Amino acid sequence: MLILYVPFPRDNAGDLTFAMDQWVNTHVNHFGNTIQVIYYQDEIDYDAIPAQATIYLCSHGSSGEELELYNHSDLDLSESISMDEAAKRFSSDFLFVHYKIQDLHLYCCGSKEKNDAMAKLIQNNLPAIQENRIHYYQGSLTSPTQNGQLFSIVGSSWLPVAQVRSTLPHAQEENTAGEESSSFSKFYLHYLSTRLPFSDYFKTERQERKRQNFFEEGRAQRQLSISNYRRRCVEMELAEDEMDSSIVAFS
Predict the structure, then answer these.
(1) From CA 92, how far away is CA 36, in angstroms rounded?
(2) Rounded-to-integer distance, Cα 222 and Cα 237, Å
(3) Rounded to an integer, what distance in angstroms lies between the CA atom of residue 165 and that of residue 135?
(4) 155-188 exposure pattern, b = at least 16 Cβ within 10 A, e = fewer
(5) What pLDDT, on a 0 to 100 scale, did the predictor assign at position 4?
(6) CA angle, corner 108, sides to 142 and 17, nearest 5?
(7) Do the beta carbons of residue 107 and residue 135 sit within 8 Å?
(8) Keywords for this entry (predicted)?
């Protein structure tokens, strides 16, 4: 399964929408219906994402040094987001199925050094124990040609993207044993709390919440009983007053 991910909302994706439609049509013609486009804030059917999926994070880059992505090839017409924001958006959409992602491609124009830095921002927003591969490219990248090929224009040369592709080392290869990255502490414990609800740590947490809820519910029931008792007392007093009044009136 090939997934094209656009880090902009569907209604604010600029000309990326047209580019994604073209990519899908070309892919279907050559490889069948094994492609999906997901925009930021789309409702994602995570169960439909198979194991060993490939994701292309697609956006417009630039020749400048700023670590930003754009939603239009004409930068004068485009809106931009920082690469850090794009990485957070990707993480928020795919964090809990990151284990299904075999390859992640940062597919945007730019220099090798710049795109290396941007790819690392994505890596830093995923769990440190990830085993997926993160790739990035250099040059001016094209959409698929009619025969489904992808090219990078470097200078005056059209090169197959495989020739300008680089791959980040796995996060665990860069961390020494026993170290935890900030991304692990920030994201992966939350991942464990949702994917492994019966671990001892979270079982204890749930038991404590259950105990607190029990006492809170008991307190609420007692307060309700007291309130009902007081209300009945007032009603009885009013009824007695009415009876006394009627006795006086007919005596």
Answers:
(1) 18
(2) 23
(3) 7
(4) eeeeeebeebeeebebbeeeeeeeeebebbeebb
(5) 98
(6) 70
(7) no
(8) Ribonucleoprotein, Ribosomal protein
